[in-house]
Specification:
The complex is a heterodimer of chains A (107) and B (117).
Chain A (H helix, E strand, L loop, with lengths): L3 E4 L2 E4 L4 E8 L7 E6 L6 E5 L3 E2 L7 E6 L2 E7 L8 E6 L6 E2 L3 E5 L1
Parallel strand pairs in A: 2-11
Antiparallel strand pairs in A: 1-3, 3-8, 4-5, 4-9, 5-6, 7-8, 9-10, 9-11
Chain B lengths: L2 E5 L2 E3 L5 E8 L8 E6 L5 E7 L6 E3 L7 E6 L4 E6 L8 E9 L2 E5 L3 E5 L2
Classes of the chains: A mainly beta (107), B mainly beta (117).
Chain lengths: 107, 117
């Protein structure tokens, strides 16, 4: 199985900060990487797919990139509505696997 | 508007069975792969199963193989998850989801399954 190691597990940040979350894949996943945002008691929401493609309707302060086996979600200019938990997910092979999640908290 | 509405969750004893349903609207159900994803209380997301548009291909996470069956009824715009031999570790919110290539594009609100004696 492909393991997705996500870091950090939590981050404290202020409105306006730049936040970076990383997922490392244990095997080559090409660009089959998506990012989701989940707020408490709600279903996850797709933010980015194919490593760097922004889902329709998602603000442009969210971006995705990759360097080798490391995939990064960047939030440029954190907004109050961005405080949530973020997950990466690989779709290169079954079983699909998620990272452990990163909780973005208010500093 | 895309909508996915799950039902069928509840409390079941270990070893018991439950069938989850998901009714969808707002898109052509028969044109999309579908999925079930679960989340144990306070934990992260876990993919459970995928099914192809015509039901001809199905994939499962190892922990549910032989116990869970994903199926669909395209004329009824419905997705199902038959869960047998349930264990305490199957306790979770189960989300129905619509797939696009390599991603989970739309999610239902989830239905809670609790396995407890």
């Amino acid at each position: 199985d492909i393991q997705m190691t996500q870091s950090p597990s939590s981050v404290s940040a202020s409105v306006g900060d730049r936040v970076t979350i990383t997922c490392r894949a244990s095997q080559d996943i090409s660009n089959w990487l998506a990012w989701y945002q989940q707020k408490p008691g709600k279903a996850p929401k797709l933010l980015i797919f194919a490593t760097s493609t922004l889902q329709s309707g998602v603000p442009s302060r969210f971006s995705g990139s990759a360097s080798g086996a490391d995939f990064t979600l960047t939030i440029a200019g954190l907004q109050p509505e961005d405080f949530a938990t973020y997950y990466c997910q690989q779709a290169k092979g079954f079983p699909w696997t998620f990272g452990q999640g990163t909780k973005v908290e208010i500093k | 508007e895309v909508q996915l509405v799950e039902s069928g969750g509840g409390v079941v004893q270990p070893g018991g069975s439950l069938r989850l349903s998901c009714v969808v609207s707002g898109f052509t159900f028969s044109s999309y792969w579908m999925s079930w994803v679960r989340q144990a209380p306070g934990k992260g997301l876990e993919w459970v199963a995928n099914i192809k548009q015509d039901g001809s291909e199905k994939y499962y996470v190892d922990s549910v193989k032989g116990r869970f069956t994903i199926s669909r009824d395209n004329p009824k715009n419905s997705l199902y998850l038959q869960m047998n031999s349930l264990r305490a570790e199957d306790t979770a919110v189960y989300f129905c989801a619509r797939l696009d290539t390599g991603r989970i594009s739309y999610w239902g609100q989830g239905t809670l399954v609790t396995v407890s004696s």
